[in-house]
Design goal:
Elements (H helix, E strand, L loop, with lengths): L2 H20 L3 H33 L4 H21 L12 E6 L2 H7 L5 H4 L3 E7 L6 E7 L14 E5 L10 E5 L5 H14 L7 E8 L2 E10 L3 H6 L6 E5 L20 E5 L10 H12 L2 H11 L2 H14 L10 E6 L4 E4 L19 H7 L2 H15 L6 H20 L5 E6 L3 E8 L2 H27 L1 E10 L2 E10 L3 E4 L11 E4 L20 E4 L2 E6 L8 H4 L2 E6 L1 E8 L9 E4 L7
Parallel strand pairs: 1-6
Antiparallel strand pairs: 1-2, 2-3, 3-4, 4-5, 5-7, 6-7, 8-9, 8-10, 10-11, 12-13, 14-15, 15-21, 16-18, 16-22, 17-21, 19-20
Helix pairs in contact: 2-3, 6-13, 10-12, 13-14
Length: 588
């Protein structure tokens, strides 16, 4: 809520209140005024308490703005609380419901010294799922790196079951207090990832009751461990998690993709393989040390390219910044196929940058800098963009479906909040409550973002520019092409030339326009060729002010690339040479 909106609402309320009081009996009006001002004073006191709490923890640049922020937040929180209906029963709600009980003393220990106390150990608790009568023993702690997971009343939970009482085929799972739009974007994204054959966790909205109190709508998230691999019918193998490695002191870039030791092994084929790290050592070495041909062979033989191309496509179409140099990577090595495969994890947002990749990472960059691999990646991207899994229409439809599914339970959630970074308040995430009207605006916003981003990506894929120069040399001609843009071009060299049956086409390897001995081995009969545009490393960060730790110290931009051919035989100047965008199929 903006300052103007909040001020307008307060003025309107006071005017309406004054006009009504003017007509009431004096003592009745006085009593009502006292009650209202006590309520306002209570909200002000809560705002002061939040201000004091955040002053010590977040060191805001403006204490006055901090108080204003929390006063507006308390007004919204009060409005949400007094207008929220009673919770639905388990039978009435379409969501899975988790009833959790824990001793008050143990819960106090979890909250005693956050965040450390919330994650340093598990405490015994009990869980009942849905309307069932079975109560099972569990262990519980808080989870999450950001403060919105554990600093506010609605806390994200990590749950472990007993060995003989697994839940959803897993012993460990999470119930997450997620930022507002994550309720939609990650649900739809994980769903699409599974449709595209990517390993992805179970992820769906659920209700949580803690010691009998309705804590609202959470997101169920399964763990990326051996049980997840089994659910996707893969062989048990190595699972690595790459998250928040230290930075290189010289470059400021995260060391995650430079040092294998910062990848935590979360799963193995068997007990003997738990400490074996040969696979991740080879992956990091390939990314950092292999030359172009070596990496191409590595990608062809040891990378599940179909899975990674679909994974990259989702990142591109969502504009996700979250699979970067430093965190949120999960990779599985399939011992049966002998190939690395991505695990979809933590998209976080649908954004609309004007460029193809929001944030890159060293593995993705190796694909982007190889014209053949990048071409293959874009072919899959174009396919996914038009697929039933992740087209604009598919995404918008699934947004509506899932929103309708949890809408009534969210309406009854008095703890629902978003997480924002507001520099004058804090450079860390601060919880802010929201109304259902604001939620509906968010739904419209993410649907617009899906459409806008898809159109931008399509425009990038349509970008393919070619020009050529012809230098006739009697019965020979040199043809020089310049390629720019994102996408390769199919060209038919013979289409524009009047050539006799003896005509031949060679690649002019040294661009000198003369057919030399080594170039006679480059003869090709069809005259049809695919020409790739260039890519260039640019020092710095694409996004102004972006952290090198996560975005790296260079980005990749489009650059012109040149090709030269020699055409022998009866040659006349062509009217045009036929060209086709190799991704979209459009004639050029």
């Amino acid at each position: 809520m903006s300052k103007g909106t909040a001020a307008t609402q307060v003025k309107a309320f006071l005017l309406t209140y004054w006009l009504k009081l003017y007509r009431l009996n004096f003592f009745v009006a006085l009593l009502i005024s006292i009650v209202l001002f006590m309520a306002a004073g209570n909200l002000g006191l809560k705002a002061l308490q939040q201000t004091a709490l955040h002053q010590g923890r977040y060191k805001p640049t403006s204490h006055l703005e901090l108080f204003r922020f929390f006063m507006r937040a308390e007004l919204i929180r009060f409005r949400v609380a007094v207008t929220a209906p009673l919770p639905l029963t388990d039978a009435e709600s379409p969501l899975m419901t988790y009833h959790i009980s824990i001793k008050e003393g143990d819960y106090s220990k979890l909250t005693a010294n956050l965040p450390k106390s919330g994650k340093e150990r598990y405490y015994n608790a009990y869980m009942r799922v849905g309307g069932g009568e079975k109560v099972q023993k569990i262990k519980l702690r808080f989870r999450g790196d950001n403060n919105f997971h554990w600093f506010y009343p609605q806390k994200s939970l990590r749950i472990k079951t007993e060995k003989d009482e697994i839940h959803n085929l897993q012993r460990s799972f999470n119930l997450i207090n997620a930022p507002e739009d994550k309720f939609i974007v990650d649900i739809v994204t994980y769903e699409a990832a599974r449709k595209l054959g990517i390993i992805a966790p179970d992820f769906y909205p659920a209700r949580v009751f803690l010691n009998g109190t309705y804590m609202g709508v959470y997101l169920y998230l399964s763990q990326a461990d051996e049980s997840l691999i089994r659910k996707h019918k893969r062989m048990p193998g190595s699972i690595y998690s790459g998250d928040l490695a230290p930075t290189n002191k010289t470059t400021g870039v995260s060391l995650l993709w430079f040092k294998q030791r910062f990848w935590i092994k979360k799963g193995a084929r068997n007990a003997e393989q738990k400490k074996n790290r040969e696979d991740i050592v080879h992956l990091i070495k390939a990314v950092q040390e292999f030359d172009d041909l070596e990496f191409y062979e590595f990608a062809r033989t040891l990378i599940n390219k179909e899975a990674f191309y679909n994974f990259f496509a989702i990142d591109t179409l969502t504009g996700s910044p979250h699979h970067d140099y430093g965190h949120n990577h999960k990779i599985y090595f399939d011992p049966y196929l002998g190939k690395f495969e991505p695990i979809e994890w933590d998209i976080r947002a649908w954004s609309t940058p004007n460029w193809k990749e929001n944030f890159g990472n060293p593995l993705l960059n190796r694909f982007v800098l190889n014209p053949i691999l990048e071409f293959e990646r874009d072919q899959v991207l174009f396919k996914v963009l038009n697929s039933d899994a992740f087209s604009v229409e598919a995404r918008q439809s699934r947004v509506d479906y899932h929103n309708q599914l949890f809408y009534e339970d969210l309406r009854r959630d008095i703890y629902k909040d978003d997480a924002m970074v507001k520099p004058e308040v804090s450079y860390k995430h601060v919880s802010t409550p929201y109304t259902m009207q604001q939620h509906e605006k968010m739904i419209r916003r993410v649907k617009v973002a899906a459409k806008s981003r898809t159109h931008k990506v399509l425009r990038i894929l349509k970008s393919a520019k070619g020009s050529y120069l012809i230098k006739p040399q009697g019965r020979h001609a040199q043809v020089i092409f310049q390629l720019q843009g994102n996408s390769p071009i199919y060209v038919d060299l013979k289409s524009g030339f009047a050539v006799d049956s003896k005509a031949k086409i060679y690649r002019d390897l040294n661009f000198n326009g003369r057919l030399e001995a080594i170039e006679k081995n480059t003869l090709f009969d069809s005259g049809k060729e695919i020409l790739y545009p260039g890519r260039l490393k640019q020092k710095g960060t694409r996004i102004k002010g972006a952290s090198k730790q996560m975005s790296g110290d260079y980005y990749i931009k489009e650059a012109p690339l040149y090709y030269s051919y020699i055409v022998t035989g009866a040659v006349s100047a062509p009217a045009e040479i036929a060209g086709t965008n190799a991704i979209t199929g459009a004639k050029l």
